[in-house]
Amino acid sequence: MLLNFSKRLFQVFTVLVIVSIISFTLMRLIPGDPVLVMLGGEYSPEVYENLKHDLGFDRSIFHQYFAWAGNILKGKLGYSYISHQKVSVILRYTVPVTIQLSFCSLVVAIFVGVLAGILSALGRNSWMDYLGMVFAIFGQSLPSFWLGILMIWIFGVKFGMFPTMGYVSIIQHPWQGLHYMVLPSITLGSFYAGMIARITRSSLIDILDQGYIKMARAKGVSSRAVVYKHAMRNALIPITTITGLQFGMLLAGAVMTETVFQLPGIGRLLATSILNREYQVVQSCILVIAIMFIIVNFSVDIIYNYLNPKMRYK
Question: Which of these, 90, 45, 40, 26, lies nearest to 276 by C-alpha position?
Answer without folding.
Answer: 40
